[in-house]
Amino acid sequence: MHDGSNSGLTEPGVMVKKRRKGIYILPNLFTLGGLFGGFYAIVMAMNERYDLAALGVFAAMIFDSLDGRVARMTNTQSAFGEQMDSLSDMVSFGAAPALIAYEWALRGMGRWGWIAAFVYCACAALRLARFNVNTGVVDKRYFQGLPSPAAAALVMGFIWICTELDVAGPSVAWPMSLLALYTGLTMVSNVPFYSFKDLKMKKSVPFTVIVLIALGIAVVNIHPPVVLFAVFMVYGLSGYVLYAVRKVKGQQTSVISTSTDEPDERGLHK
User: Fold this and answer.
1) Side-chain half-sphere exposure of 71, counting CA atoms within 13 A
2) Which of 128, 144, 234, 251 is the most buried (most CB within 10 A)?
3) At what angle do helices 50-73 and 148-164 cross, to 10 degrees?
4) What value, to the nearest 5°, has the Cα angle with vertex 42 and ends 173 and 47?
5) Measured between alpha carbons, how far is 61 from 64 in angstroms, rounded to an integer?
6) Which pLDDT belongs to residue 256?
7) What structural domains and CATH numbers belong to the chain?
8) Tell me, what's the pLDDT at 223?
9) What is the number of alpha carbons within 13 Å of residue 261 lying toward its C-beta?
10) pLDDT digits over 98-150, tens only?
């Protein structure tokens, strides 16, 4: 008589082998590529190659923008991938920019320097953690606060421009510290930033859109450090403009729904 205690049996004497859970390779390869970009940036900064450090962080941004899309396109989303993505972002867009900014410009400021670097790093961690628990209640069209890749782009873009112009880091220590504080605090603010997630990549577009994209690529190639920093500076300020416009029009400024329910901790990140 079968008493049900042997859960691996469907019939007496017949054992069913349980299927082991695996890890999807493709999206996690992109995530590991982003993690390598952040690690590479730190190593290059240790060798005082700050231009290559900036390229490492920007490369990490490209990988970060692709891993989630690849997972959705191939139907390979997983809780492991989501957690891996958050940890990778913390290294590439949190710890790496903070450490590089400190080594490049903030070290000579003493305690004020490492405080500015730590505020940025801590705010990046807080921003990622808040995103994870607020995923289910935030309007998908907007980010709550400046996304960490954009914050990292502002910090590293500033370092890249100064390096190209042969400006020594210690000579711009105070602007660097103010930028680190601005980006850090904006990450944990409630200011809405457009997420571009409502753009349909599979939808057909007019021919002129492709032409404009080609022109945009050409403009970036004129002088990548200046153009990229300018683009992300505009984006870094756009949230406050959007917030002010909504405030003036009497519209809701928060991107959080009006529900008072505790959001599910799904461990999602993007």
Assistant:
1) 26
2) 144
3) 150
4) 80
5) 5
6) 67
7) 25-196+203-249 (1.20.120.1760)
8) 85
9) 9
10) 999 999 999 999 999 999 999 999 999 999 998 888 776 677 788 889 999 99
The answer to whether the predicted template modeling score (pTM) of the entire model surpasses 0.85 is: no
The residue behind tokens 């859960």 is 7
| DSSP element (H, E) containing 57 | helix 50-73
Is residue 19 predicted with pLDDT exceeding 60? no
Residue 226 structure tokens:
């200046």
Give me the mean pLDDT over the 207-224 stretch. 80
- Nearest C-alpha neighbor of 124 from the set 75, 184, 203: 184
Distance CA 105, CA 22 (A): 44
Length of the chain: 270
Mean per-residue pLDDT of the chain: 83
**CA-based nearest residue to 68, from 25, 21, 31:** 31
Question: Residue 181, class by beta-carbon neighbours within 10 Å (0-12 exposed, 13-18 middle, 19+ buried)?
Answer: middle
